[in-house]
Amino acid sequence: MSSRTLLGITMGTAGAILLGYCIYLDQKRRADPEYKRKLHDRRQHTEKAQDMKDDHNDNQLTECPMEEPLGEVSDHLALEHCFESEMKMGEQLICQGNIADGVTHFANAIMMCAHPLPVLQTIQESLPDFVFMPLLMKLTELQSNSSSTKDNSTTSIQEYA
């Protein structure tokens, strides 16, 4: 017998023994009387953790009430968090069929941007026209209402429409 054949037989035998040992340990683990209880506890723990995470995300979505004028928001991270929460809330509301409120949240998020045109272009690509057109109308309405914050980025929204 050549050394190559002997090596192949040895490796095959070692693999079969390893596979058999894994199967043996799996059977032993499943035969444990506490196995089902431990598995049940582990699944409940992960479900609780997921529920807590979902609740935390839901709470984050409602933390940005947009009561402060844009000129007073100085913390960049707070502004970014507020932008993200407004976008998520708008997306959720539109997915639920509440287009008017979803458009309002999208408009609030866009009004926070220093450069709203790239955001508008991205939103236009992802939203259908029957949602995007009310968004443009809402933006012009918000822009006319907030005459105190006139800069180049917000006047360009009217040019985009």
UniProtKB/TrEMBL annotation:
Record keywords: Membrane, Mitochondrion, Mitochondrion outer membrane, Protein transport, Transmembrane, Transmembrane helix, Transport
Domain of life of the organism encoding this protein: Eukaryota
Protein name as catalogued: Mitochondrial import receptor subunit TOM20 homolog B-like
GO biological process terms on file: intracellular protein transport; protein import into mitochondrial matrix; protein targeting; tRNA import into mitochondrion
Lineage: Eukaryota, Metazoa, Ecdysozoa, Arthropoda, Hexapoda
GO cellular component: a single term: mitochondrial outer membrane translocase complex
InterPro entries xref list: MAS20, Tom20_dom_sf
Topological type in the membrane: Single-pass membrane protein
Region of interest called Disordered, as start-end residue ranges on this chain: 35-60
Keyword Cell cycle: no
Native source species: Drosophila albomicans
Family named by the database record: Belongs to the Tom20 family.
Molecular function via GO: mitochondrion targeting sequence binding; protein transmembrane transporter activity
Annotated transmembrane regions: 6-25
Subcellular location: Mitochondrion outer membrane
Basic and acidic residues bias (residue ranges): 44-58
A matching Pfam family: MAS20
PANTHER family for the chain: MITOCHONDRIAL IMPORT RECEPTOR SUBUNIT TOM20, TRANSLOCASE OF OUTER MITOCHONDRIAL MEMBRANE 20
